[in-house]
Amino acid sequence: MTEPDSSNELQALLDAAVDAIVVINHVGSIESFNRAAERLFGYQGRDVIGHNVSMLMTDEDRHAHDDYLARFVATRVPHIIGKGREVHARRKDGTVFPALLSVGAVAGGEPPRFVGFIQDATERHRLDDESHRLQTRLMHVSRLATVGEMASGIAHELNQPLAAIATYAHACDRLLGVPDPEVEEVQTALKEIADQAVRAGDIIRKLRALARTEDAARVPSDVNAVIEELTELIQMDATSHGVKYRRELTPNLPSVVLDKSQIQQVVMNLVRNALEALALGQLDVAEVLVCTGCTPEGDVEISVCDNGPGVDATVAPRIFDPFCSTKPTGTGLGLPISRTIVRIHEGTLDYQPNVPTGARFNVKLPSIRRDHL
What we know:
The structure is a single chain. By secondary structure, the chain is α+β, with helices and mostly antiparallel strands. It has two domains: 115 residues, Beta-Lactamase (2-Layer Sandwich); 244 residues, Heat Shock Protein 90. Helices cover 46% and strands 20% of the residues. It is built from ten helices and twelve strands. The strands form three sheets. A five-stranded antiparallel beta sheet has the order 2-1-5-4-3. Strands 7-9-10-12-11 form a five-stranded mixed beta sheet. A two-stranded antiparallel ribbon has the order 6-8. β11 and β12 form a beta hairpin.
């Protein structure tokens, strides 16, 4: 009976693998190239056996890979051995694609040999990009929904400067209609018209800024300044609900790298939830408080509190689950989207009962601390 050829058995096993597998020696020459590798790179095994594996790489990864091999042969200290990483690979036709590469050392041989497992990451990149686009759209839709919910309160506030403009305009018309008009009175009325027009324009500008779609731009920011920009809009919305709005902003907080519009969206959503919860209660003084501070770890915290009924204990564990809503017409997406935004910023968003009553939502964001610079 003929003994099986171990090299043929090994090649058969390699060819049965789904992933591309390339075996190289200590100087990087290819010794084995399985069928999946042929399909992935477009080469036949006979075209690459004996050639340096760098023919499958871009120039940048080629130099790094040669350095890794030489270092391991000299020191036996692994840097890429046993670890997965993403590289850029090159096919026979010259096209470059992202690839996941895992390299292992073949045991029991000197000089050492290495086996690489390669997966095409193109589809994963496409899915990641599509997921990012969908997530961005969803966050923008949520932002527009929040702005839409604020519309009635803001429209009421916007009517005030518009009504004042109309009143002063009629006054100017009346003053200029008399034989000897008082110029100073007309000038005073015109100044009031200009001031009220600026106020109305400022309200619209802030509302448009909150609703605007733009590419995420994370920059070092002062959290207090980010919240202060929302003050007028929140104040108008709170007033229309008969709610007192307060701020307690701790000065001199460390900076945070953030996308201002996204964090403002989170704060506005939490405030809107508080206002709607307060509308359900019978309170002499309904109040929403936005405060900032520094955690013991040195990070920055934003808290939105109210003195309403709070979140029911049976609902609290699921409050951040998609489609979990206590509002009859709610989508249940505001809090999950807010938590996603905060997680994108490497922070946390959590709920706890407020003391003595109400709800408290805490946003924690990593700060730029001096020891990180």
